[in-house]
Design brief:
This protein has 260 residues and is α/β, with parallel strands linked by helices. It has helices at residues 8-12, 37-53, 82-99, 114-128, 142-145, 147-151, 166-175, 213-216, 230-251; strands at 18-23, 57-59, 103-108, 136-141. It has a 4-stranded parallel beta sheet with strand order 2-1-3-4, with helices on both faces. Bound molecules: zinc ion.
Length: 260
């Protein structure tokens, strides 16, 4: 159910429901995928989740503008700074909380939004928790909430998402095949000798290093996009939607954790 399709008096009667804010990005995705990739993928998972949930949850429109400063060297990228992004998300949350909503889920489809998105929910929680002990603010990305389940799909080369990679290419092949430049499928792969750090952000590093995307990849794409198929894309959408729907249904029932 779209919150934007309700009038304000009806919205006031729906504040017991989970509100979902889909967050995406508008940034380079290599030589072969469109700038809007993350928002297209996020919108499709939301469309499928909403079809299943009906009026069980309220959805906002896709917030297509994300925190993509590390992609700015590539033309066409449109981005907010991390500080502005924290402010935008915080003020969206404040609007919803002041309207009476108490369960809000940021459903993300872009890695760069994770740190500022988490900062925003902590800031706003700290601001309101004494006044509204029943307030729940949650953040996850489809590739976090369904990461393990997606990795178990047969035939995938990558065991996690990277960027403009096998997973994202498969999903755009399923969704908008005409937007995939099939003669330009290429992704940077890393062989790196350090025990402490890898520029491959699909793998854990013990040390964080600041790197913009143009410092680590000429194309801006990573992994194995040339192995992607639209069948894998369909499976990724199916699995991601299942986990998102399961979480939203459970989130609707969460009670404060007992303190001992
Ligand atoms: Zn992406």
């Amino acid at each position: 159910m779209q919150l934007g399709e309700q009038n304000w008096r009806d919205a006031a009667q729906l504040t017991h429901k989970v509100v979902v804010i889909p967050t995406g990005a508008f940034e380079q995705h290599g030589y072969h995928l469109p700038l809007l990739t993350d928002s297209l993928i996020g919108s499709e998972t939301v469309r499928r989740a909403e079809a299943e949930l009906g009026d069980e949850a309220l959805f906002l429109p896709m917030l297509w503008l994300g925190a993509s400063e590390h992609h700015r060297a590539f033309p066409g990228t449109v981005s907010l700074s991390n500080a502005t992004y924290v402010q935008v998300i915080s003020e969206m949350l404040e609007s919803l909380i002041d309207s009476g909503f108490r369960r809000i889920f940021l459903l993300n489809s872009h890695g760069g939004n994770i740190i500022p998105g988490q900062m925003a929910i902590y800031d706003v929680q700290r601001q309101y928790y004494k006044q509204y002990p029943d307030l729940w603010l949650a953040f996850s990305s489809w590739f976090e909430i369904a990461g393990e389940q997606c990795a178990a799909i047969d035939g995938l080369t990558q065991n996690s998402i990277i960027h403009a990679c096998e997973w994202e290419t498969a999903m755009i092949l399923k969704l908008r095949p005409e937007l995939v430049k099939r003669d330009a499928l290429t992704g940077t792969r890393f062989e790196y000798a350090s025990a402490f750090y890898t520029p491959d952000f699909s793998k854990p590093s013990r040390v964080s290093v600041a790197r913009t995307i143009d410092q680590i990849s000429p194309s801006g794409a990573f992994g194995y996009p040339e192995r992607a198929t639209s069948e894998q894309g369909e499976q990724l959408f199916t699995v991601a939607t299942q986990e998102i729907v399961a979480f939203i249904r459970e989130f609707a029932t969460w009670k404060p954790f007992p303190m001992k």
